[in-house]
Amino acid sequence: MTYKNARALPEVARFVPEDRLVVETDCPYLPPTPHRGKRNEPSYVGLTASFVAELRKTDPEALSQTLTANAAKLFGITLT
Questions:
Q1: Do residues 10 and 17 touch, judged by C-beta distance below 8 A?
Q2: What phi, psi does 39 have (nearest 5°)?
């Protein structure tokens, strides 16, 4: 998603309905920019989420809350 040659994924991230959007890490491969060439790790998912927020021209914190709720719904996790 964050690589310069990723053409389709950023377009999808811009236009997918917000209630259907989740982000993930492709561990252990394909870390987001600026960590390209290193081993990917789950802590980098925030960089991808921030990139998506920038693409969508939305507040990163608000999008983060939406992404968390979407993931919880997808995986059947109850948030407290």
A1: no
A2: -70, 135
